[in-house]
Structures are given as structure tokens and as C-alpha cells.
Amino acid sequence: MTVEIEIIAAGRPPRLEDRPLEKRIGLVILATDHTTEVDFQRMVASDRLGVYVSRIHYANPVTPENLLKMQPSLTEGAALILPDEALDAIVYSCTSASVVIGDRNIEAAIHAAKPGVSVVTPTAAAMTGLKALGARRISVLTPYTIETSRPMADYFAELGFAIDRFTCLGLTDDREMARIAPDEILAFARQAQAPQSDALFISCTAVRAAEVAARIEAETGKPVVTSNLATAWACLRLCGDDRARPELGQLMTKPYREG
After folding, report:
1. Model pTM score
2. Residue 184, CB half-sphere, CA atoms under 13 Å: how many?
3. DSSP assigned state of 53
């Protein structure tokens, strides 16, 4: 038996707001990434600020050659985030690839899809964060091999940082990097921190270092910058969120100045 149900059209269209949320951040992340989205939901997303994600193809192992292969995908990855709508910032969330592709090349590729948007890379955000903390001498911890770590050492040295100690863990699969236990990150960070360094940088957006940054600072007495902590900080500040959140680490108490 068919019951006829009357459906009534509303007498007027609904009022539309300019945006569902006041600010919006795009993330271009690797297909294999376990960590960036989780970190940004925890540190960045709110009822005022939305985080929108696009994934691009990536094939392990983590080598300079494989990292460079992502460059042609960046424009399409950015274009797929809220097509034809403006973003307040967009992150390419791969630290080692940012080194081998280059911050400016990444910015150009993303601007081809999203003209004028503020482009954030983990490397540029880390550099800005280290400067905001007053760090000139740094220690660095990466999950990579020596081969993949070498371009990163050169990147920071060319920016004028003195590298007192550079430690790498020798992993080649970013999915394994995401599985490093937080307590292990803490243990390796203690060993990686040279006494004379002003700060420790922990590289890789796959590594869950942002969640233990404040614990590392408490144990070592030195500021810690991680890839995801740096990009989250940069995005929040670019979106006008200047709140001090020391529970996330000293970086989250600092203002953001580009360049």
C-alpha cells in the first residue's frame, strides 16, 4: 500500500553565510600519512577554524628521489581542497620533501591552484619557529637515513644555524616512522640534544613528536620545535589566533613573523 505524503516547499530560501567557518586551512599530505591530520585536529581545528585535507600519491622508501617525485602532484592536490574557494593557509606536510623540492617551488606549485594563499612548509615553519625562540645553535633529530638527512643538514646550515649534533634513526618507511612510540621519541630526543644547543628540531610530519614536545622541554630544559608543531603554530598565527598555549610547547607562546 502506497501512502501519499504531502511535501511542502518552504516559502523562502535559507539565508547563507559567506563561510561555514570563519577561517580555513588546507593540508596537502601524503597518502601514507598517519599523523598530520590527527595533530591538526588536536592543535588547530576549532569551531572557528576548519582543516580540510587532500592526499597525494607517495611510494616508500623515503629517499631524495622518491620525495622529489611528489612535486608534479602538488598543484592538483591543492586544487582538490574546496575547489574554487579561497583558503587562509595551505600546508604541504612533508619535511624531507620540502627540502629536496624547495620551499619556493612548493609555493609556486600551490599558487598555480590557489593564487595568493599563504603557503606553509614544515621546513620554513621550523626555521621561523627556531628564530622566534632565539635559537642559533641547534640539535636535529630525524627518523631518516643518513642519505635523506644530509640535504636537511645542508638546509639549516645554509640558513645560518650552527648544528651541534645531528642524529638520524635510519628508517625508510614513513608508516614505520609514525609507529615510533612517544616514549621512544622522548628517549632519543634526550640523546639528540647537545648541551650547547639553544633548541632541538625533530623532523618529519609522520613522527608523533608534537604530542611530547612539552615533555621533552621539561626534561631537557631546552625549547623543542617539531615539524607538525611548527606548521600548526604558523597556521594558527596566520589565521589570527595568537593565544599562548604553553602546554603544547614553548613555540606556542611566541608570535609569528615570516621571513
Report:
1. 0.95
2. 11
3. E
Quick one: angle between helices 122-132 and 227-238, nearest 10?
Answer: 80
Query: What is the sign of the dihedral through the CA atoms of 166, 170, 176 and 179?
Result: negative
Percent of the chain exceeding pLDDT 70 equals 99
Helices 182-192 and 213-220 cross at an angle (nearest 10°) of 40
* Nearest Cα to Cα of residue 94 among 75, 111, 116, 71: 71
Residue 151's SS3 state is: helix
Task: Tell me what the pLDDT averaged over the chain comes to.
Answer: 96
Residue 193: what are its φ and ψ, rounded to 5°? Answer: -80, 110
Residue 40: its H or E element: helix 36-43
Q: Distance (Å, rounded) from C-alpha 161 to C-alpha 95? A: 17
Joined together, the cell numbers standing for residue 63 give 629517499
Residue 258 has pLDDT above 90, yes or no: no
User: What is the pLDDT, as a whole number, of residue 259?
Assistant: 62
d(CA 34, CA 255): 28
pLDDT value at 94 more than 70: yes
Report the alpha-carbon distance of residue 107 to residue 187 in Å, rounded. 35
Cross-strand pairs, 51: 25
Contacts of 118 (CB under 8 A, 6+ apart): 88, 89, 90, 238
Residue 59 phi, psi (nearest 5): -120, 125
